[in-house]
Write a structure and sequence with these properties.
With about 325 residues, the chain is of the alpha/beta class. Helices cover about 60% and strands about 10% of the residues. The chain has 9 helices and 8 strands. It binds adenosine-5'-diphosphate.
Length: about 325
């Protein structure tokens, strides 16, 4: 038989509802007691007024007294019944409302919990690929049989490559998990965008040369923004790295910096490009347009880039034509 399972969030909602209802019950009890005392104080006078008007006889017979006591008890009883009825309705409405409101309160926590779960599942899945590659290569190398020096060299190279890939992924995962828990401290100061972009172009030169890509007609004007220079450099490196990765051999990349009111930098390539539908998704975690062409990435670079841009209230604008190339422009508010 299938076991009926209540999610932790429904359990929390029920617990909240029970607590709220208990508080409401105590308040209603105190309030009803107060109203009851207040309202029944005058009940004898009201009953006498109702039965005799202003001519209440000085001496009442035993029969009349009994009748009046009976009537008083009757009034009190019906008042208690009314109070219980009203209290029940309020309690029921209160419980329903608190169940509904605790649901609304818990919604953002539930969403972020769900995101964390997906994030962990995706991360484990992505880490399994390089781990499996290392495992298989080592098993083959360890198996008996005459292996050449070349073979071992290949295995070591592959292990090294996969290790680097994993190390990069773990670094990215750490960055994002720190971003989620707001543990990263940004050191804001005056940042010279032109200098940063020149540094990025310089640092990525070996990669450009390796892929026979050319930096052409760079237009670098002076531009200053308030921000964390290391983080902005990381953002530019991610975009530059992608431009290099997704541009075939012999292609070119153009870097621009400028803007007085809204300083910006942009990196344009004439690579594979991104379709309109994909452009919306490339900033999602682990999203890759074509896994086979990802060249070692895990689809986390642009999520980090977006987080850095958001933290600077900057915007990343992507223009692209499949087969023709892409432009990633980061615009700051000065
Ligand atoms: P990855 O590690 O796969 O590069 P990113 O988050 O940096 O992950 O990028 C997400 C996806 O966006 C990439 O897999 C790629 O498909 C696409 N992309 C990013 N930059 C470019 C670019 N300049 N040209 C073409 N596609 C790009």
């Amino acid at each position: 038989m299938k076991k009926f399972k209540i999610s932790p969030f429904t359990k929390t909602k029920i617990t909240f509802t029970l607590w709220y209802s208990l508080i409401l019950f105590v308040i209603l009890l105190a309030f009803s007691g107060f109203i009851y005392t207040l309202e029944t104080q005058d009940v004898t006078r009201i009953v006498l007024l109702r039965d005799y008007g202003t001519n209440v006889p000085k001496q009442l017979t035993n029969e009349e007294k009994k009748e009046i006591i009976l009537q008083i008890n009757e009034v009190k009883k019906s008042f208690i019944i009314d109070l219980i009825l009203v209290d029940d309705i309020i309690l029921l409405l209160g419980a329903g409302l608190s169940f509904f409101l605790s649901g609304i309160t818990l919604k953002p926590i539930q969403k972020s919990f769900q995101r964390q779960k997906e994030f962990i599942a995706d991360a484990s899945h992505e880490l399994r690929t390089p781990l499996a590659a290392i495992q298989t290569a080592s098993e083959v190398a360890l198996r008996n049989g005459n292996k050449t020096k070349e073979h071992y060299k290949k295995v070591i190279e592959q292990t090294y490559r996969e290790n680097r890939r994993m190390a990069k992924m773990v670094d990215e995962l750490l960055t994002l998990s720190r971003a989620d828990t707001e543990m990263t401290e940004f050191i804001f100061g005056e940042v010279e965008l032109d200098k940063i972009i020149k540094d990025v172009a310089e640092e990525t030169k070996p990669l450009l040369l390796q892929k026979k890509l050319y930096l052409k007609n760079n237009l670098i004007e002076k531009a200053k923004v308030k921000g964390d220079s290391n983080k902005i450099k990381q953002l530019a490196l991610i975009i530059m790295d992608n431009a290099i990765k997704y541009t075939p051999k012999g292609g070119n990349i153009q870097v621009k910096v400028g803007g007085k009111r809204n300083p910006y930098f942009s990196i344009a390539d004439n690579g594979i490009g991104i379709s309109k539908e994909e452009r919306k998704k490339i900033f999602y975690r682990f999203y890759q347009v074509d896994k086979a062409r990802s060249q070692g990435g895990a689809g986390l670079g642009l999520s980090i880039a977006k987080w850095i841009a958001d933290s600077h209230k900057a915007e990343i604008i992507v223009k692209s034509n499949p087969g023709k190339g892409s432009v990633f422009k980061v615009v700051f508010n000065s």
